# Entry
Amino acid sequence: MKRAAFRIVRVSRSERIVSKNTFHLCSLVSPPTQTHKRLYHTDPPSSKGDTLHSDETTKHPLYSPLFIKSESNEYPFIPEGRGIPITVGLSGGVDSSVSAFLLKKRGYDVTGVYMKNWDELDELGVCTGEQDWIDAQKVCSKLGIKCKQVDFVKEYWHNVFQRFLEDYRNGRTPNPDVFCNREIKFKEFMNYAMERTGAQYIATGHYARTNFNGESVQLLRGFDSSRDQSYFLSFTPWTAFSRTLFPVGSLSKNQVRQIALDEGIHVAQKKGSTGICFIGERNIQKFLSEYIELQKGKFVDINTWEVLGEHEGLCYYTVGQNAAIGGMKEKMYVCKKDIKEGIVYVCNGLKNPALFCDTCIVDEPNWIVDGLPQTLNDENFEYSYQIRHLQEPGVCKVTKLSPHSETDNRLVVQFNKPQRGVAAGQILVLYHKDVVLCGAIISEPGPSYQEQKRALPDDVHF
# Structure
């Protein structure tokens, strides 16, 4: 059998590639089962030099801007399907629609499933999900694939939304999209796909990549750094990724839209969703007031202890944001919250020491590896981290809070530079180069530079 060889083409990250035959290599997962190995070429390489066979791809540096060109196949960055059943989570948007197209083109037996996770009208009385469902059906019809809808409203309410509300009641800053991925897309949806549609794999439109490394799976950043969604996948169990493909993870948004335009997919220019999924474009304060009994209180200047006014609800504020206090000569920013007393402490200036800290404690770590990494015992090992989506990564060191405890999983994170606006409830994600290592919840920010009576470095930025 003739091997499918790929020619290496090195290009810059900024170069726009829209040809069907040239894309960035996606290191998709290759689980260690005979069934799964059908996805991959297993012939050994015939020569060295400028020829790279598809079974060699995961040996390349994961962070290298490597592109490949297939001599015989379209979209070679996706393994050949050969009729393998796969179910794609369709949102009605361009990313998941192009994912379905690419998988169909590569020979998979594709089923599209639209997940209904929320059941409420917007402020104009319109069910915003209805148009998405219509778009998903139209895409499936265009591609000639099966189309289904599944209702996860109950599961979403109990496993995602209730936690979201409880976090806000406790003055935390939650990220429900992270738990939607863990509880709905990579649990309920995955189970539904395997049990009800006969799928061997699922696929989503996330901008992320996966790589099989020995007996485990690695989650990687999406190649397009401006669209990378690995942050939101950091609480998903690593075992789920052995059954998941991310077809657009090695493409830019422009490439995805171009494919949709070329193939006549009608959502090619559809605007992507923004904000928290169930809130959408609505005012978050008005939304929260429908579910949470507000805890009113006072704004207090943390430097002078002067009462500056009253706030309508402590849950409306997170550390680092503009407090928007009326009648002030300068902007005041939230630097601390006292849940018991209902006080929101504020300070003036974006570079106020009260806004910065250099440590935090995180809880509920989800290591996307098989067991704890050896680097956790190395106090000199440096991780990169993010506490917000698309934040410029920082550098940190990580140690166990209780090194000799087998039950206390909390970690101490030491930032190499002051970090602004660290808030309880935020998700902190640890990386090594492009590999996602762990997601954890910030349970306690460290003392601020003001509390430590330390001056901020001159080169601090945020």
The radius of gyration is 24 Å.
